[in-house]
């Protein structure tokens, strides 16, 4: 009986000493997160038909002779574009493609998938695609700061929006500033009272000079009637200022200036009548 009690005390003591050992071994060890084996991104979140899509990213470990596979899938997971490109020595890559062709028909969310080497080394991102560019028609009220005249300029634009219109009297031009989110066109109905272009020594219409960000371009179409000159101009994504240069701009004497001139003439006549001032010599 005495030996049994001693044995039980030894067992309990051993168990008590063992508890901290198992508790320490059960503590999980944390490890820092690993970098992605391949990454990908696009330059914009949405595109329309004809836009350029720029895909870029980086590979963590470059394997010589191994190409990077790129797939663009439409909303129904059909392949709209597939290609392979080389990766630079530092692991970076850039790829550009046009959102155009027979496989770019569906509107909605498209997926970009890249794969480098093994099937598990992949990355993906998404963007929104619209097969028909958005068309906006509106009227811009352009005010001449000198004559205080206001002109209504009707316009229709695709691939962007009109930010503002200004008159440059020195260069005889109207400047249309646009936010071009994609390649597009703008059609302008310009009142002849605002700007016009005539051939020297005649009353025949002459062509406008059109500059986009300082570079001369030809209009896509032109037409005219007695009151308006109509032009349509194509622009590219990123273009900002469209300048239409004519041979004559807003008349120097607008309604306000003419009113001031009339008041001045009446005042001179009234003063001359009271003071006997004459404009013509008396014979």
Q: Your description of this structure?
A:
- The structure is a single chain.
- This protein is of the alpha+beta class.
- It folds into 2 domains: 38-130, Immunoglobulin-like; 135-252.
- Helices cover 16% and strands 44% of the residues.
- The protein has helices at residues 2-25, 255-275; strands spanning 38-42, 46-48, 52-59, 68-73, 79-85, 92-98, 108-116, 122-130, 135-143, 150-168, 173-191, 209-212, 215-217, 221-224, 228-235, 241-245.
- The longest helix is centred in the first third of the chain and has 24 residues, at 2-25.
Can you lay out the helices and strands and say which pair or pack?
Elements: H1 2-25, E1 38-42, E2 46-48, E3 52-59, E4 68-73, E5 79-85, E6 92-98, E7 108-116, E8 122-130, E9 135-143, E10 150-168, E11 173-191, E12 209-212, E13 215-217, E14 221-224, E15 228-235, E16 241-245, H2 255-275
Parallel strand pairs: 2-8
Antiparallel strand pairs: 1-3, 3-6, 4-5, 4-7, 7-8, 9-10, 10-11, 11-15, 11-16, 12-13, 12-16, 14-15
Number of E strands: 16
Using the alpha-carbon principal axes, give the shape. Answer: elongated
Separation of the first and last Cα atoms: 162 Å
Oligomer: single chain
Q: What share of residues are in beta strands? A: 35-45%
Average pLDDT: 84
